[in-house]
């Protein structure tokens, strides 16, 4: 079945599957998941299907700031200085806990622990540095690694390297963090920029098998993981590894509402979020907008051109769609001296800060104080 025909079919059956999703209490794909991990999934499901709100998140909010003077004090953040609260979802990345200098590694771990202890959800992606190219970007030799893993071909040492890398991820969670996380491995696989992406040797079949191998390996060694699958700009189901390997179905897309961006519009955002929610309903999963933001290439600061972007191009269109509003969270990217800004900071123009304060105050957006009040790691009542 083509993707377009599949979406049409999902639209026809939405009332039935939505009712099923609303009335269910899904269990993690890891049957041995800790009680806190089970509770977290139940809360995510409840926020998505039973409330008219979603959590707001950002990548590295407690360790990076726009006007950086070294690693940030985890008690503050750009958003704390603008709206008086931290994000309700804390984004992190295993690359920054494995490949950076020891001081920065510790700082990112402390930030994640602080977010968890403050009641926020913590989600990890992994900009996995390849074995050959020295980066997470596509490299012709790194693009062969997963093909060798799924075929158990260790002539180049790729299989050994793959599992050793996962062992360090597992060690960080089991020993250093010891709390539930949402893990988004191999994200944006339908794009051509990562070594696990669309130019992967063996294509989607290799990708799906590698994702399954990763999930099975982690499940046998840790019970703190929920697993999220998130393509870029299009719900490309040919890469979907199967619902027995996924807890959360996500979607990444940047630049909607930017007049210079023509490849991803607000209408595209809503169309794809609705498709994600349709599919999540059918598979009894949680849906999420796992990455978004104004296009900030070449250091274009949206705060001076579209100060109300977060309301006009994200919040209002999502709330106007019964389907799209069923997501559990929205996460944006890093504010630092080398990234963004994706949210206002102390030096932003006043119209930008005032607009985001209204975004924060809206009843549909959940920041740390509101997420903490829900006790997302305790049983759902």
TrEMBL record:
Membrane-crossing segments per the record: none
Keywords: Glycosidase, Hydrolase, Signal
GO biological process: substituted mannan metabolic process
Domain GH26: start-end pairs: 35-369
Pfam families, per the entry: Glyco_hydro_26 (PF02156)
InterPro entries associated with the record: GH (IPR017853), GH26_dom (IPR022790), Glyco_hydro_26 (IPR000805)
Protein origin, superkingdom: Bacteria
Signal sequence extent: 1-21
One annotated GO molecular function: mannan endo-1,4-beta-mannosidase activity
UniProt-annotated catalytic positions: 188 (proton donor), 291 (nucleophile)
Family of this protein: Belongs to the glycosyl hydrolase 26 family.
Protein name: GH26 domain-containing protein
Species annotation: Pelagicoccus mobilis
């Amino acid at each position: 079945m083509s993707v377009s025909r599949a979406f049409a079919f999902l639209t026809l059956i939405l009332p039935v599957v939505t009712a099923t999703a609303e009335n269910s209490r899904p269990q993690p794909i890891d049957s041995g998941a800790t009680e806190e991990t089970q509770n977290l999934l139940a809360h995510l499901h409840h926020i998505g299907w039973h409330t008219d709100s979603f959590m707001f998140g950002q990548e590295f909010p407690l360790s990076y700031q726009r006007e950086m003077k070294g690693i940030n004090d985890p008690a503050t953040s750009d958003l704390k200085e603008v709206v008086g609260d931290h994000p309700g979802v804390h984004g992190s990345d295993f690359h920054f806990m494995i490949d950076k200098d020891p001081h920065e590694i510790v700082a990112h771990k402390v930030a994640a622990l602080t977010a968890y202890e403050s009641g926020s959800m913590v989600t990890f992606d992994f900009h996995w540095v390849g074995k050959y190219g020295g980066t997470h970007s596509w490299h012709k030799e790194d693009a062969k690694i997963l093909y060798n893993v799924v075929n158990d071909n260790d002539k180049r040492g790729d299989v050994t390297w793959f599992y050793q890398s996962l062992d360090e991820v597992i060690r960080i969670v089991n020993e250093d963090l010891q709390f539930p996380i949402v893990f988004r491995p191999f994200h944006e696989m339908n794009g051509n920029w990562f070594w696990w992406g669309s130019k992967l040797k063996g294509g989607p079949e290799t990708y799906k098998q590698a994702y399954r191998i990763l999930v099975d390996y982690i499940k046998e060694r840790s019970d703190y993981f929920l697993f999220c699958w998130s393509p870029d700009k299009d719900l490309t189901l040919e890469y979907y590894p199967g619902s027995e390997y996924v807890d959360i179905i996500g979607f990444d897309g940047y630049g909607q509402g930017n007049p210079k961006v023509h490849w991803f519009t607000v209408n595209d955002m809503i169309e794809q979020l609705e498709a994600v929610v349709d599919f999540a309903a059918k598979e009894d999963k949680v849906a999420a907008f796992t990455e978004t933001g104004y296009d900030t290439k070449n250091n274009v600061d949206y705060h001076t051109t579209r100060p109300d972007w977060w309301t006009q191009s994200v919040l209002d269109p999502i709330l106007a769609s019964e389907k799209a509003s069923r997501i559990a969270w929205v996460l944006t990217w890093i504010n630092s001296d080398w990234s963004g800004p994706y949210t206002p900071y102390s030096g932003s123009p006043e119209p930008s800060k005032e607009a985001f304060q209204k975004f924060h105050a809206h009843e549909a957006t959940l920041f740390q104080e509101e997420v903490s009040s829900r006790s997302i790691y305790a049983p759902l009542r």
